[in-house]
């Protein structure tokens, strides 16, 4: 599936994004939201990298940083080896054709005043991909591709259901012929039965068009279904990263384990040991010192309060940022027995 | 004092409501989301729309509705009371018309008293002499709302005056909202120093005491200008004062609209900023703009009225409702000839109609795409 | 405080709530829409009913109807709602107010908009107590703090003086729960209580609700679109579609052997962590517009099993096994088909 020609398609190096919010009268110390803190990533062509995390973890911000929809505070993003920051406005505009985004909110992501055909055609016209009658033909093809019909082009977004609007959003993104797609919670706002339709569509399109996905979601079930690799984010950092099966069967980070056990499984009998986390999801304005997760961690040691753990890769392409549960480098077994070690204190 | 139990509860336990029983689910006549029930809303829209339509059509077709030119004086009938209109019996419809009036004769020239002369009848026909409703003979005098001290028919002056008053609202709103929107959208979207500059400019304008400023400017209008030019100048002055307020509100809205996902999508597609601003952002401000327009029109009408009242607005021979009201300032006049308040009533009705319309429009334009659970 | 004497409650009812053939219509600018078309739901004392459905199925409308909180443009056309034997629909508003908060309580999806931002959370909990239990200010405040402790909010004495915006989403939801249970209601209706929350917080809240239910002996209606939650929390499940209940079952039976094609479809379309599938089974089509319902069975346009009979007749909810009912002529459950003796095999 992954076509490893020459390096990753999308790369992030040391990405940091801070937002300033709140204002004091004289513009003195405002509050800083540490949305993304020091993220390194490499996404290979044709793969789906799924990113999970809860509110405030920075996953949506990270997606937008990768597309340079927002400017990073530090660090850089490379697309196909080219540094985005080094591009001129015109070069960036033309590069936009290669990387697009599908949004979460089917009700806010389409301009309610434009007809569907115009929405999908906007990218085509801006980049002069086609002209005149060809535009209409292309729009019809795209609508067909996402499971809609050509005559839908004359209607307005409000005449469609949530799932159909997401399809329109996907058609709009595909219209310019991208290679890389950031999917920012594209199914979170949809009903379960429709969610399945859209997930299937995204998978089919990936196979057909050889797309690379950066798939953000808060529902681990969805991410697990679609992704080749999964990254778990917490308070702006990646705390665990690895191939899907690795993460699901051998999670290391206590947060990952809590997430996994918190996912409601439609199985009345199977009640695995639920790891119930104490406390609330912290605010990215004042992240705790040391390991950001330590206040909620049942296994926190003294070191965790003081020293921030780095994301270190062990065997099987599996990396984790944890002092207590690093990934064994020799791919040692016995993980199953230690799968849920007894909590300390 | 305990209330008598409701009739429903007297029915005893487990009573099944009959089909058609209306069970009161709540006491307020306002929906949980603040809208008024659809039936009332339709009524308001319908009535307001009808009233405004009538007024504006009258203004457009003034020469065919008014019976006399606005400046024409009937010196022998100063301060005449309104001619009372009576419905005709069907037998006389062909000969006289649907309605008729008795002419008035002045009985007391000093105290200006009038009496109906019942010996004559003047029929009013629809379409007579090319007008909506008029007597057959031009010499028959019919003053539907009476006359002023110079014998000028108030009804005709009201009709002609509506042209100025009603149009000033529209023109003024177009200019001030147009300018306000452009400035607001640019400031809100671009942000940074441009935003800063533009907003400080707006604040300066808003800080000026608007009415006095208006007075000062109006006072320096050269008297020799044509009525049309005077009219335009007044409109421009009033718009100049108001656009800044709109710009500020729109700029605030744009700050939020800019973060909407479909606007971000446009940026992600590579749409140039200027195009995005006017294709995606500006239309999203329309829900506010339309409502603000309907609510601002009365403001312009009243502003012009105030100017005219003070003698600074349109000059004779042009009339407006405001200048007509100048007569009503004199309490003695008001007491003796109460019909001179008619222009004020018209202003009040117009203002109310626009307000109702604006409120219901705002309800309708609210985002309705939120799905029900 | 008892309700006006002429409508006494029947003591010792086994069913704490009984909704019978409820039909609710809404007047909109586009005409009259039928939101609920004959909904029947029984709930036994002490049990938890999971009410599951997708957008527009009417589950929230049902909850609001029970509490008589529907707006003015809603009309109950037909049906009965019995709470502990007491018929709710004919009650006067005053009498209904006495029940709300005291015997039936509700928590909503969005805790931020359900809490008044200008009052402290302690005040808001105390308000319910002072209203229903006629407590004095100080006593009510003390009890409010106790409630906060009960819902596991740390430092409840201090937290009671906080304003809603100072609390996180999970804490606000706990406050809502505290408000709801403060007067010891018999029935708690939770409308998507965890949908807006992060998944780890969701686990906390569900855990809390479970503990409270057993401690206080409350019955509960849990409204959600997530079958995963219902699997663990509910004793019985009712699946709603387009204003009707299409299946009702004890939880285990539903998951083991769903009867209605829609239930089966829903179950199959949930991605699972434990099972790996290539494609997710999805239900084709969309929920029908209430103004344009198909003839006969409302689900038939999306149903793989649809037969001519489904277009001609409208299936009613029929019991095919103890405690299990389905509204379908050709259910996918073997047991249902056998029991119905429908013999109309595919």
Characteristics of this structure?
A: about 350 residues; alpha/beta; four-stranded antiparallel sheet; globular; B: about 375 residues; alpha+beta; MetI-like fold; two-stranded antiparallel sheet; 6 strands; disordered C terminus
How would you explain this protein's 3D organization?
The complex is a heterotrimer of chains A (345), B (373) and C (346). With 345 residues, chain A is of the alpha/beta class. Chain A has a domain at 256-345. Chain A has helices spanning 59-66, 89-95, 116-126, 133-145, 162-174, 192-209, 220-226, 244-249, 254-262, 302-306; strands at 10-21, 31-43, 48-52, 74-79, 82-83, 99-102, 180-184, 212-217, 229-234, 237-243, 312-313, 319-320. The model of chain A is unreliable at 333-345 (pLDDT under 50). Chain B is α+β, with helices and mostly antiparallel strands and 373 residues long. Chain B is 54% helix and 6% strand. Chain B has a 4-stranded antiparallel sheet with strand order 1-2-5-6, with no helix packed on it. A two-stranded antiparallel ribbon of chain B has the order 3-4. In chain B, α7 runs antiparallel to α8 (273-284). Chain C has a domain at 259-271 and 279-339. Chain C has 13 helices and 12 strands. Chain C has helices spanning 59-66, 93-99, 111-114, 121-132, 137-150, 156-159, 169-181, 199-216, 227-233, 251-256, 261-269, 308-312, 334-340, and strands at 15-28, 31-44, 48-52, 74-83, 86-87, 104-107, 187-191, 219-224, 236-241, 244-250, 318-321, 324-326. An 8-stranded mixed sheet of chain C has the order 6-7-8-3-9-10-12-11, sandwiched between helices. In chain C, strands 2-1-4-5 form a 4-stranded antiparallel sheet, covered by helices on one side. Chain C is globular and about 65 Å long. Residues 1-12 and 342-346 of chain C have low confidence and may be disordered. Chains in contact: A-B, A-C, B-C.
